[in-house]
Amino acid sequence: MKCLDEGVDVPRAELAIFCTSTGNPRQFVQRRGRILRQHPDKQFAYIHDLVVIPEVNPNSDSYEMERSMLKKELERVNNFSLLSENSSHTVDVLLDTMNHYNLNLYHNE
Q1: Which of 14, 28, 42, 106 has its CA 20 to 30 A from that of 35?
Q2: How far apart are CA 98 and CA 70, in angstroms?
Q3: What is the pLDDT of residues 29-49, one digit of tens each?
Q4: From CA 84, how far away is CA 46, in angstroms rounded?
Q5: Contact 55/34 with Cβ under 8 angstroms?
Q6: pLDDT on residue 63
Q7: What share of the chain is helix, strand, coil (3-state, %, to 5)?
Q8: How far apart are CA 76 and CA 79, in angstroms?
Q9: Nearest-5° angle of CA 105, CA 89, CA 20?
Q10: What is the per-residue DSSP string for 34-71?
């Protein structure tokens, strides 16, 4: 799981599938950087960042906590996607999800 963390040399990587998120910004930047590192034989890098969204139940005692966790994860995805070539597609998907869970990433609620 931590093969892209500090101290690991990943030569000319072009594809990554992140199956686990991290709340540690340094760790996340480190992982991205391993894949996005320039190489003479590489024009693009592809990163698939998998996000699992649980069914947030508004009637649950843990609703606010679940919603808060989801918002933080979507903020991370949004920040990352703004730097990508396909940011408009990602924003469309995020907007659908935000609307479904009545979330707004662009101002404090």
Answers
A1: 106
A2: 9
A3: 788 888 888 889 988 889 888
A4: 10
A5: no
A6: 86
A7: 40, 10, 50
A8: 5
A9: 65
A10: HHH--BTTBS--EEEE--------TTSTTHHHHHHHHH
